[in-house]
Amino acid sequence: MTTEISSARQQILETASDLFYQKGIQHVGINEVIAASGVAKRTLYRWFPSKDLLIEAVMQYRAAQWSSWFETAVSERGNTPKERLLSTFDVLRDWYASPSFRGCPFINAVLEIADASHKAHQVSIDLRESIRQIIIRLAAEAGVKNPDLFSRQYLLLIGGASLMATIEQSPDGATFAQTALSVLIDANIGD
Amino acid sequence: MTTEISSARQQILETASDLFYQKGIQHVGINEVIAASGVAKRTLYRWFPSKDLLIEAVMQYRAAQWSSWFETAVSERGNTPKERLLSTFDVLRDWYASPSFRGCPFINAVLEIADASHKAHQVSIDLRESIRQIIIRLAAEAGVKNPDLFSRQYLLLIGGASLMATIEQSPDGATFAQTALSVLIDANIGD
DNA sequence: GACAAGGTAGACAAACTTGTCTACCTACTT
DNA sequence: AAGTAGGTAGACAAGTTTGTCTACCTTGTC
Q1: pLDDT digits (tens, 9 = 90+) for B7-43
Q2: Would you kindly state where each structural domain of chain B is located, as residue ranges?
Q3: Contact: B111, A103; criterion CB under 8 Å
Q4: Is B118:B52 a contact under the CB 8 Å cutoff?
Q5: Chain B residues within 8 A of A29 when measuring between CB atoms
Q6: Domain B1-49 falls in which CATH fold?
Q7: Which ipTM value was assigned to this complex?
């Protein structure tokens, strides 16, 4: 067997990830994933005993990818803590403006699945918390007085910007958020 | 026929509205709406020739209700323009804290339907615009220098707060947003 | 060679979904 | 009375969805 065949699980995961994101989790059935990934149904169920488990695995896979991407992109921008904070919305604006953007997959999943007990819901909560921890660190470095409150306000802005990008199909939310964030930073430094 | 029977359409609309909101649009089939509303299938299809048309009608119905409720609640609070702006998040916090809260129906619908060409998507866009117009008016009254930008930042905050309430099941996002909004107001007045 | 692991195609089946239709009823208007 | 409008119960049907299963293949290990 070649490497390709021994990575059927990976192929399924990536294919499902793309399809779920592009069309919506509830709009893509497992037969579509099978057809697009080129694996047999037996194989899919061998690795993912149910659709819910596939969804969960996909969300975890995407969360790991997104976190990695975000941390890397942010760390490569800005020279000062404040710049780095603001640059996060430059990173996001690029994402929102990309042709394949179809919303934040972690927000999408929670609302599409509409079940707070689903494991994918917890993945979203965990990801938000990891974003918040990044922001707390950057905010503290920038001398923000209350990094905890600031990080929660940050989550509001990032959520709102993502929604604006999704609903109004405009990446400008990132710029509005950046402007607001700059005001919040200045209001919370130096007093 | 009694009044009750002549309002079958209204009964369907209200029942579907509740079910779609509580369980998710894609998770409720028309047979469930029929069973819960007590109308015949023939009657449902008489008034709503397809599920999509029912969804559209429901979203329009909810948008009218929501707008009315929001305007009224806001107009009854605050004595100054700034207070009125901030009070919007008091109104929203109460909503987020209510037992039946399950997210913003207009955000939910867009993400659940996952089709930008669906009429319900436009309903959400229009509602956001109507919120924005309310905020532009209040902001101008408060002396905010750039009501347009401010109103867009407001949309970010209201979207983010709704998501926080939905995903983290915490109404505190409204408080964080209120704090941020207060800073934004102060930073945009008087210079 | 025998067995295990991982793979293939796709048939099968129960349940669900949306929408169409039959047959009938009630109340109102002309 | 006849016709219209709005209503009832629910059968029917095609298509979709998730999951189970049959039959077979390839590769690697013992």
Answers
A1: 899 999 999 999 999 999 999 999 999 999 999 999 9
A2: 1-49, 56-187
A3: yes
A4: yes
A5: none
A6: Arc Repressor Mutant, subunit A (1.10.10)
A7: 0.92
